[in-house]
Amino acid sequence: MAIERIIDIDAPREKVWTVMTDVERWPEWTASVTSVALLDKAPFDVGSHARLCQPRLPVAVWTVTVFEPERYFS
Questions:
Q1: What is this structure's pTM?
Q2: In the prediction, which pLDDT does 35 show?
Q3: Which of 59, 64, 74, 71 is nearest to 17 (CA)?
Q4: Segments in the chain below pLDDT 70
Q5: How buried is 57 (Cβ within 10 angstroms: 0-12 exposed, 13-18 middle, 19+ buried)?
Q6: Sign of CA dihedral 2, 57, 20, 10
């Protein structure tokens, strides 16, 4: 299953990308994430791992598998 959501944001692409890829700060602006810890020292890119804690869900480790700068990551 794949879920995609597209939202128009009135801000420069570079600024949005900077906020979205600063995953350790996600808990500051979304209630669906209580903590995020990057598990790698390298820059955020393909192969990066992050431990996510979300309300009512088990702790999960996410791995970046696709990374298109200023466009998309999965």
A1: 0.81
A2: 97
A3: 71
A4: none
A5: exposed
A6: positive
CA 4-41-46 angle, to 5 degrees, is 35
Cα 74 to chain centroid, rounded: 8
pLDDT of residue 26: 96
Q: How many Å separate Cα 50 from the centre of its chain? A: 9
**Share in percent of the chain as helix, strand, coil (round to 5):** 20, 25, 55
Q: Which pLDDT value is given to residue 5? A: 85
Token look-up 């906020």 returns 19
Beta strands per DSSP E along 13-64: 35-38, 49-53, 60-63
Block residue for tokens 């298109």: 68
